[in-house]
Amino acid sequence: MTGSLFKGNFWSSDILSSIGYETIIQHLNNGRKNCKEFEDFLKERASIEEKYGKDLLSLSRKKPCGQSETNTLKRALDVFKLQVDSVAQSHIQLAQTLREEARKMEEFREKQKLQRKKTEIIMDAAHKQKSLQFKKTMEAKKNYEQKCRDKDEAEQAVHRSANVVNPKQQEKLFVKLATSKTAVEDSDKAYMLHINTLDKVREEWQSEHIKACEVFETQERERINFFRNALWLHMNQLSQQCVTSDNMYEEVRKSLEMCSIEKDIEYFVNQRKTGQAPPAPIVYENFYCPQKNATPPGKATGPDLARRRLLPIPKSLPDDPDYSLLDNYSLIYQ
Predict the structure, then answer these.
(1) Domain of 122: which CATH number?
(2) Which residues form a coiled coil (predicted)?
(3) Cα separation of 311 and 55, whole Å?
(4) Is residue 181 one of the residues assigned to a domain?
(5) Residue 300: inside a domain, yes or no?
(6) Region at 260 (left for phi over 0; alpha for psi -120 to 50; beta for the rest)
(7) pTM for the predicted model, two decimal places
(8) How many structural domains comprise the chain?
(9) Which of 1, 13, 92, 180 has the greatest number of CB atoms lying within 10 Å of its CB?
């Protein structure tokens, strides 16, 4: 494994480059965004749980469900409605819990943001100072190199004028050469001063970069740990909700185990029975020979019904005007 931690893996050979720092900052920004997304997820889930709980509560309290049942099944249905009501309340409570977890995530994000801000201000200043000093050093170098070229030209001019008879012209060239040498010395000192200053600035920036890497790595470790724990807790809360709901549903199952088909049927019979005797058979009644105290059709006749005597068979006489015999059939004149 090469390097170690943030401070060993986010450098660049270019003194003006801040790609390592920018890479870390981008990663931290992405992490903060991920926390915000989970925070929003919790809030949305809370809204879903709250809506579900309220809808379930409304269903439990307003929608009839076996309201005409009796006895043991009625008691089971009462438990069922009560437990559904409790499940609805538990979902509403879960919504409040999820909003509280979302609030904690938001507080954590803002806390890290403030901590990061202090380090970012220091690093921004270090980057600017490094860039500014590098620019000044390069300008000093450029000036130094130009003064060196001016001195070289002055020396060449002196050498070319060695055979010149005009003393004033030679004196002028020597003065220019002396001036250029002084300028070179001054520019060289300025250049060296800027180099030393740049090295100090570079060391300060490097030190701040290492500190920033340590702070940012610590923050990232805390963020990952916090995010992981928040997600784990969220799963535990959802699992607990399932356990809570199942415990409530178990109460319904227990009440259903107490239901008795026989008892419910007996209860209905005892409460709503209308009588134990069916209607009597409808008997034939001769219009011409009505029975005394005859029972209306469809009514019970009492204990003597089985011993009721047979109706008399009418006799047909040859001279009877009401009857006539035809092939053993009796015809009534209309």
Answers:
(1) 1.20.1270.60
(2) 91-118
(3) 75
(4) yes
(5) no
(6) beta
(7) 0.74
(8) 1
(9) 180
